[in-house]
Amino acid sequence: MKKIGFLSFGHWTPSSQSQTRSAQDTLLQSIDLAVAAEELGADGAYFRVHHFARQLASPFPLLAAIGARTKKIEIGTGVIDMRYENPFYMAEDAGSADLIANGRLQLGISRGSPEQVIDGWRYFGFNPQEGETDADMGRQHAEVFLQLLNGEGFAQPNPRPMFPNPPGLLRLEPHSDGLRERIWWGSASNATALWAAKLGMNLQSSTLKQDETGEPFHVQQAAQIRLYRDAWKEAGHARTPRVSVSRSIFALVDERDRAYFGRGNDSDQIGIIDNMRAVFGRSYAAEPDRLIEQLKADEAIAEADTLLLTVPNQLGVEYNAHVIEAILKHVAPVLGWR
Fold it and tell me: What's this model's pTM, rounded to 2 decimal places?
């Protein structure tokens, strides 16, 4: 059994060929797609966060709106770039959105990926300390955020407050119990996966990974997941961690599918990203019977408990709901995911 959700990058463009021609289109259709996915029986609605781009950026208004419109589906990110985040303000936003959603947030955070501008986090008022990298700064922001989510008081109260205070040091409000256990780290390397395990974060492994062995992407990713779980056990955490992988998977069941994805890339790709040699996972696009056989061979999907289907959001809500339904109906049951 696996939890199956979708991951949207939230693109928009004024092109006449796009169903999302503005930021408003993307935001409103993201809400509608989450509602549709819940009705289809999907388990999660996840959204990528990018800055200075025609993509989704500030996640918490969107997550809260989806939380108010849905009842059961998990609502998450994949991922929030912590180099840009004030962890104190973020803890308040996250607590509010999680309470609106009745405890359904699953927040993926990370160091982030290359952005549209040079050192974009500097425009947000953040600069690494001397001797630190921007990646160090992102991880430091993450550690502060995790500490704040524990809900422990740390701020000295005013002895003559406007409103009565509870006793002791004050914490940020609103606080949502349990959110600390629903934070995920988006990891592209074995080292950061081990770091995430030590800190008690769930693991999000994406469609790319640092090429550390030269093996196929799914083999390296599966090895990363196993290393992460071993490190989790060694750290002595009481609960069982969750692990997600993201994949572009399309069951070709009608002519639209074949027109859009019938000639998809079916092999890994190697590239350089932030001076790192990375292996990018293949896309899957085939008739259901053939697709099932291909997915059986993906070692990382087998290791993960959660699968996020990347969706082409610019093709509109109706088509993306069709993409999700095709996997849930024609593929997942045969593979034992349902």
Answer: 0.95
